[in-house]
Amino acid sequence: MRRIGPIKYKKGIVTKRIEILTGAVVAAAILTPAASASGKVVVIGTRAAGDAAPWRGASGDAIRFQCLWFQRDINCAGNVNAVEFEKSSSASGRFLSVRVWLCHTNKAALEATFNNNYTGYTPVDVLNMRSIGLSGTGWFDLRINSNRFDYDNKRNLLMEIRWNGDDGYDVACWRSSQPYSRCYAYDDNASQGTVYNNGQRIRLTIGTMIGLEATSLGRVKTLFK
User: Fold this and answer.
1) How far apart are CA 182 and CA 196, in angstroms?
2) Residues 78, 165: one domain?
3) What pLDDT does 180 receive?
4) What DSSP state is assigned to residue 155?
5) In which band, very low, low, confident or very high, does the pLDDT at 141 lie, cut at 50, 70 and 90?
6) How many CB atoms lie within 10 A of CB 161?
7) Domain range for residue 186?
8) Are strands 156-164 and 202-207 parallel, antiparallel or unpaired?
9) Are residues 169 and 107 part of one domain?
10) Which helix (H) or strand (E) covers residue 88, if one does?
11) Does 71 lie in the same domain as 27?
């Protein structure tokens, strides 16, 4: 920052220079990168077998997919800020017009009619991307919009994924042997699908709000001491 020379106590000059300096410091604090989301990381399910659904590009050109997780296995209220799948192979693929919703539900097991699985709750749109490329191994983050879905930790959690268009390659991820359920059809506008009595292994980050770093706010506070 350019050093300001000796202050001459003329009417209006001191006030003006203080306003400029204050504005510059406040602006710098506001432009400081936001702090990272924090919270509880929850892994649901155990590795049972690799399964390409919902990222099955070799079998169809679109999908509507739902999966269910129980409240007792989440046991944490707050914003769901990350949803991650765990790849079971190094295969890669690209999927188009990908949309993801999260929804509370009273269902203990899914049924074939997709809309009935909402049990009266409104699905929240947490992702709408032109394309997603999945590659590598291990966990991959769908990069949903943070602070969009506030989980109440009272009901079960439903996730819905739809995409339309792909490069023709499957991307297998681990599904779980625990008693969850999945339902899907190879049509992103399907009203009904096929129910499978196995779950999707998943990792959720249920976090707090994203805000300014404490050091940035501290810089602003010092101006008024």
Assistant:
1) 5
2) yes
3) 86
4) S
5) very high
6) 24
7) 39-207
8) unpaired
9) yes
10) none
11) no
170 in the same domain as 222: no
Four-residue CA torsion sign, 47, 90, 194, 201? positive
Number of domains into which the chain is organized: 2
For helices 214-222 and 13-30, what crossing angle results, to 10°? Answer: 170
Rounded to whole angstroms, the Cα distance separating 191 from 185 reads 9
Q: Could you read off the pLDDT of 2-47 as tens digits, one per residue?
A: 444 544 444 454 444 434 434 443 333 333 333 344 689 999 999 9
Rounded CA separation 181/197 (Å) = 5
Do 111 and 191 lie in one domain? The reply is: yes
Separation CA 95–CA 208 (nearest Å)? 30
My answer on whether 13 and 91 are in the same domain is: no
- The pLDDT value given to residue 4: 44
The CATH number covering residue 108 comes to 2.60.120
Q: What is the mean pLDDT of the chain?
A: 81
